[in-house]
Amino acid sequence: MGVPDPAGPVMDRDEVDRALARFGAEHEAVETSLLSLQDHAGRRLLEGAELTGVTKERWAATEAAITLLWTYFDAYSGVLRTAREVRGRRRWSSREDLVELTELLRGDSVVLAGSAAHASAASGPGRLSHSYSPAALVERMNELYAACLDVVVAADAVWSALPARIDLLSAELQRTRRLAHSVGVRPGEHPAGDDLERITRTLTGLREEVVSDPLAHWIPAQGSAAPGGGRPDTAVYDRQARALEDVRREIDAVLAVRQDAEKRIVRLRDVLSRADRTLAEARTARGEVLAKIAATEVPVVSGPPTVLQEQLAAAAEYRRHAQWHRLSPLLESLEEKAEDELLRARESLTAVTAPLAVRAELRGRLDAYRAKVTRHGLAEDPVLVERYEKARRMLWSAPCDLRVAEQAVLRYQQAAAEALGAPRAADPPQRAEDRRGDGRGASS
User: Fold this and answer.
1) Which of 31, 158, 215, 314 is buried most deeply by CB count within 10 Å?
2) What is the dihedral of CA 71, 25, 43, 142, to 10 degrees?
3) Which residues pair with 6 in a beta bridge?
4) Single pTM value for the model
């Protein structure tokens, strides 16, 4: 819109002509702006919408301001028309004409009659008329126009951006709901189903608010004086979009479970079966150890946990009834527990068979030293023969006392070292379980 011209002394003919040309251009600019505002899509939407909240209050004030703008424009047009008539009386304006034109173009020649609502804030309440100079009136119209345009542009920007985006997200939400229903993700049965219900309610309410109160979802630009400076507030929309993406990932996980559920259940059965067989082997080995090894503490072997078999049966039931949302977390838990159970079974077997391993190590050490003295031609040495036979009887008899047998093997080892001219073994007596490495080193 136009820029007002400061007041001055009596104008000459050239100044009058320039002022009329300038005010004529401003008149056209103001008229174009008002017609553009009148035809603005945002104004038409505001005029026909059922508004609420902040938008309803601001649009009521804006409608009054638009009406006032046209009142100002009509008064401005009347003064401009009168000035043109005075200037058109004669080719060379007289002194009286110039005084009158100066008053029209620079003085407070625009008189607005009516209620106090038509006056500027400076006029104060209670005045029935107010006078403006054409320049001051242009400035006043500029201010009102900017305020009106700000409301119209902001509302139009929100309506142009948010409802369409909400509709697209709602369409995606409906597709996700159908997919979720197909895999058993339903409200009250799965957290993702509850999330879908909450997102649906939030988007429905958000769209209603945006349509009826768009200015409540507008963030003005800080420090910007341009009409419509700012952006739509998409915080709520963005949160729901992220929440829907999280739900889609959860449903993808459920779909993955559905696709390979049978393979995972078969693998679980295999792992649990191996754990059961290992525990059974450990129980058998424990009986053998108790029968063949004397004076040894053998750990008790517990049975397989029935809870894992029950959970495996529940997983198969979930798969049979396509309850994928329940099967997914159960399989993840079972896979971890089954691996732990297999590891526990192997540790039990290792702990139970440790005495047999010690006996086998002592037997190997004894035979290694026997082979060594034989290579040196000392196989018939009476001391060596006696100590070898004694150690052998202890290691190949049942039950075998590992502590006594270890001492017998150690004495044979010392006798062999003396016979071969080597230093006596200085190993102190200790449990055979702690000395498995000694025999391997001596037999090398």
Assistant:
1) 158
2) -70
3) none
4) 0.57
